[in-house]
Write a structure and sequence with these properties.
The protein is about 5% helix and about 45% strand. The chain has about 375 residues and is mainly beta.
Length: about 375
């Protein structure tokens, strides 16, 4: 199904192009230390995403489309969702449906798996006799910066950590939505019941439990800034910022009548992109849901709709590791159970939209992760 996304910004001046090229040159030449101490240039690798009931990868130019599950582990994993590349680019964690039966709530019993970036060597890292007996599911995998550990949620309401090989699994605290500090010393997360949920942080060994917010409402989806100084999170349809010590709470974006999701920091920490549920109508006049992708500067200025379309839904934005591109999913179908997405990239200003996949059988589950490489 062809999607007319032609976001052509006619007459882009030479000054804008020069600024973009200058930014790209700065970001791609930035020298960083890897978690192992090696030094290299940050580059863009493959893009992983949910493709129907499997996880697939494709190169940023749209070539080398690969189903990672079919050749290796289709009998081990019945479904593979929510891929997340490890920071070193060597592994992918994902949420999979094994053959153990139903969860405690009667739905699919999901475990977390880790596989090599080419799809080989898939290993269930959260299964255990207690887990199989209880039927709890695990999800929302988040890698530690050194790629050695994974923090995740569980159906029992707990925040857990486990080593990437499946060893040393342990429950830290009641809570969920984990995000690691860039130095790996803290995990920020959401904890609360009944009247609201607040933002907290804790060390990976379970010590140092610290409350960061109070009274903002139902806090969710925290994301730590690349420099470790701030955390963005959602609460009551508002995108907030707070310092890593809990001070300096401020509103980053409040779009009246809309609902933001999935905030993502740019690698240079200057901007954030996020999807926004926009009010819309279906062709029959029924109330529907449409999603656009917005960007905002880290100081709350410069809020802009990068995909101002009323008949196309765009979501799941993710920055390329060098900060020069944004990958996202898009579909013309706004309602129904057979929504099909394809994968696109665009420039940070919304121009230069490229379609990477065509009718790839992509279902509603369309989380995206971009592989970081060090050359």
């Amino acid at each position: 199904m062809a999607i007319a996304l032609g976001v052509a910004i006619a007459g882009l001046g030479f000054a804008v192009l020069a600024l973009r090229d200058e930014l790209a040159a700065h970001l791609t030449s930035e020298v960083e230390s890897s978690p192992t101490g090696a030094v290299g240039v940050v580059g863009n690798g493959l893009i992983a995403f949910g493709c129907g009931y499997h996880t697939c990868t494709v190169s940023p130019n749209g070539s080398a489309f690969t189903d990672l599950i079919e050749p290796y582990d289709k009998d081990l994993v019945l479904a593979a969702y929510s891929p997340v590349f490890s920071p070193d680019g060597a592994k992918i964690a994902f949420r999979g449906y094994p053959r153990q039966g139903l969860s405690a709530s009667g739905g699919a019993n999901y475990d977390l798996y880790v596989m090599n970036a080419d799809g080989s060597g898939a290993t269930n890292v959260t299964t255990s006799p207690d887990d199989v007996q209880s039927g709890f599911s695990q999800y929302y995998a988040q890698w530690s910066p050194d790629s050695s550990m994974i923090a995740y949620d569980s159906d029992d309401g707990g925040l857990y950590v486990v080593k990437a090989d499946g060893s040393d699994m342990g429950k830290l605290v009641e809570g969920g939505n984990p995000t690691w500090s860039p130095d790996g010393s803290w995990i920020a997360f959401v904890m609360g019941r009944d009247h609201g949920a607040d933002l907290w942080k804790i060390h990976p060994d379970g010590t140092g439990l610290t409350q960061l917010t109070q009274g903002t409402g139902w806090d969710e989806l925290p994301v730590w800034s690349p420099d470790g100084s701030r955390i963005t999170f959602l609460s009551q349809r508002v995108l907030y910022l707070v310092n890593a010590d809990g001070t300096g709470l401020s509103i980053l974006a409040d779009i009246k009548g809309a609902f933001p999701f999935q905030p993502q920091w740019s690698p240079d920490r200057a901007r954030l992109v996020f999807e926004v549920e926009m009010p819309s109508e279906t062709p029959s006049g029924q109330a529907g849901r449409n999603y656009n992708i917005f960007a905002v500067d880290a100081d709350g200025s410069g809020l802009i709709d990068l995909t101002p379309t009323a008949d196309i839904t765009e979501n799941y934005p993710i920055w390329s590791p060098d900060g020069t591109k944004i990958a996202f999913g898009a579909s013309e179908v706004l309602t129904g159970n057979n929504t099909a997405y394809d994968l696109y990239t665009m420039n940070p200003d919304g121009s230069g939209v490229d379609r990477l996949t065509t009718d790839a059988g992509l279902g509603v589950e369309f989380d995206i992760s971009w592989q970081r490489t060090l050359d």
